[in-house]
Design a protein that fits this description.
The chain is an all-alpha fold. It is 82% helix and 0% strand.
């Protein structure tokens, strides 16, 4: 908690964010969906917007909150589009340059290094967080499927995925 925030202002801020979530979630999801075109990703990014709001250390007001929500949403859309474009370019490059039936040695080594980094990162996570991450990322399960399968709330699943993705990203950033 920021030294400028008292426990009372922190509670008010959480209530303000909760009210904004209930009131604007559909609008934000529509804003993101219009730009990305995938409902599942739009839902995930919408939740990410509000998770980031909860991490804010500055004092929020009802006047600044809406602008901040759309700024965070816009930045997440841009980040997603950049990753998607980069992924498309990489796939196209490998499809054009890779042998049809097998990877070359350099590609195999690179893939093995990335897998090892991810595995080390997963080993440092709690078993539940690692399980949620694997189901979501590697088995392409939806939040609802994971929630039902593991008996967790959707919000808990979102939090595990969010934290696990940060852990893996940081491990890869550090290693590469």
């Amino acid at each position: 908690m920021n030294s400028l925030q008292t426990p009372r202002s922190h509670i008010r801020q959480d209530a303000l964010i909760t009210a904004a979530y209930n009131e604007r979630r559909g609008q934000i999801e529509g804003y993101i969906l219009k730009r990305i075109g995938c409902k599942a990703i739009a839902e995930d990014l919408t939740h990410e917007v509000f998770l980031r709001l909860l991490e804010q250390t500055t004092l929020l007001t009802s006047q600044t909150l809406v602008a901040l929500i759309y700024t965070i949403a816009r930045n997440l859309v841009i980040d997603h589009m950049r990753r998607h474009a980069c992924s498309r370019r990489a796939k196209a490059y490998f499809a054009e340059h890779a042998p049809r039936s097998t990877y070359n040695t350099e590609q195999m080594v690179h893939c093995n290094e990335l897998e090892a980094i991810e595995q080390r990162s997963l080993a440092r996570m709690s078993p539940r967080k690692a399980e949620v991450y694997l189901l979501y990322i590697h088995e392409n399960r939806t939040l609802e499927e994971i929630s039902t399968q593991l008996g967790l709330s959707r919000r808990t699943v979102e939090n595990h995925i969010f934290a696990a993705r940060i852990d893996v990203r940081e491990a890869m950033r550090y290693a590469l």
